[in-house]
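fwd from M.: "can u put these together and see what the complex looks like"

so here's what she sent:
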Amino acid sequence: MVTGLKNRDESALRLLMNEYGDILLRTAFLLVRDRQAAEEVVQDTFIQAYRHIDQLKQPDKLKSWLLQIMTNRCRMKQRTWSWRHIFPGGRADDLTADDEYAASGAEEMVMKDLDSYALVHAVQQLDYIYRECIVLFYFQEMSIQEIAQQIETRENTIKSRLSRGRQQLRVLWEREELHDRA
Amino acid sequence: MTEHKAVNPQERQHIQKQLQSELEYIYFQGHEQVIRQTHPVTWRSSLHMIWNYELEWSWKPSGIITAAAISALAILLTIQQVNPPSTVGTEGNGTPEKRQLIDIGGNIYWQDAYERAVKQYEIQN
């Protein structure tokens, strides 16, 4: 796949998106809390990966490389302002009327389902620095060392963020479950 | 940190499974949008690709340049305040000329201003 990407092969890019698209989108959704923003993050991740595939030195680290690009983009999304706020039509992904209808229908369906999902909501309410560690540790099943490398932070910092994040998560999760029952 | 060591592997697995089951209806659907950006086929897609091409802008150099400019301006203003152009003045016709200080009765005056004041006093009386 990596060789195909280096050769600018479209089918290799499609294969990459089929293999990692869903997991990246779900992770991004937990991090940025917005379905549309998460979709944009993942699209941009694939575009960046495709354009800079030569920077991937170890092909067996493809997934963690993609995750690193994605987490960086999520962080950027949290703090950057985009020209797209002024020129929203400036994307290549202008939707047709049918696309828009299908997307909004799918969105509605997903949000309706998510309304009863306590853990996702609880994770999304965490402060970003804790959310990031919790998502990578629990959802991506990464080790503390891997997370530290991924977000370029010391292992002890990750440990303390995980510890605090877990405490917050416990409280929020209970609250969400109580809310759902009510 | 001690709490982290006590992480229960079953708890970790439970949370992972719960998150996976809650998110299982979310699928990535942006394949075509990505392909349109990476492999544009129409001039419109190409235009959009250029429009959306990411430029990386580092704030560090621009911050340093701004700080240097502000410092230079501050130094320039300070120097001007310490050494005002006091020996150069303008007369009524707007041409710059040298002004002189004179000592009259222990007080210091600009010569031209003093002479003007004396002339005015003489006219009044």
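replying to her w this: Confidence is low (pLDDT under 50) at residues 89-105 of chain A.
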